[in-house]
Amino acid sequence: MIKFFGLIARKPDITELEFHDHYRHPHGTLGYKNRGYVGYVQSHMIATNVDPCPTSIFEAVAEVWFDNLHTALGLADDPNYLQYLKDDELAFVDLTRLKWLYTDETLLRLPIDPANPPAHADMVWLITTAPTTMKVLQFINGADPIDEATQAALAVRLGALRSTRCVPTPEVYVTDEPAFGAVREFWWPTESIFLDGVHADPEAWKALLALPAGSESLIAKAERFT
Predict the structure, then answer these.
(1) Going along the chain, which residue ranges are E strands?
(2) pTM (predicted TM-score)
(3) pLDDT digits (tens, 9 = 90+) for 28-48
(4) What is the domain partition of the chain in residue ranges?
(5) Each residue of 5-18: pLDDT tens digit?
(6) What distance in Å separates the CA atoms of residue 17 and residue 163, rounded to the nearest whole number?
(7) 140-161 burial, b if ≥16 CB within 10 A, otherwise e?
(8) Structurally, what CATH architecture does the domain formed by 2-224 represent?
């Protein structure tokens, strides 16, 4: 499966509210009609009570799953996109700063402490059935300084219930350099649970944010369309 990220910067002449709401509707509503989506999520950057609190020029991220590379690469030629979405981007997106990335996604195995097993609600929670989730996205400039095991350990220390690592799809970037070398993702069911995890282990949070120059981190509310 191919996961596509679209990193969206806000036009400077509109407010944050206008940006996020326009992205939800009409843009998100229209985008749902594109062909070939296996899943479609909008992640909207939010400010929250953590220190340090990362910010990014990319205030929203489109996340789209495809079941094959051919369909994924045809996104810009989709008839629905060409008729309804392409021109609508002009209303809220700073196209000069727009970035995108085609990736292969790996779900990390998060270690479980037998002495402190997860609650039943945590065991049955799924991002595919939750309409909204709390999320941290990190777009790494160049090589990721930590390995998958370290990322998984940090996720557990921060109380995340899910973490993935995405790397650029090799077939897409044969001649061109990808915008980022890797993407880390972390999920929590709610903002309160996220805050509890960060406040319980601030050193893990600081370690997570120790990224190469040119990387981007954002705390987001992820909203599932399909």
Answers:
(1) 2-9, 39-45, 58-66, 99-107, 132-140, 162-168, 182-188, 216-224
(2) 0.96
(3) 999 877 878 899 999 999 999
(4) 2-224
(5) 999 999 999 999 99
(6) 29
(7) beeebebeeeebbbbbbbbbbb
(8) 2-Layer Sandwich (3.30)
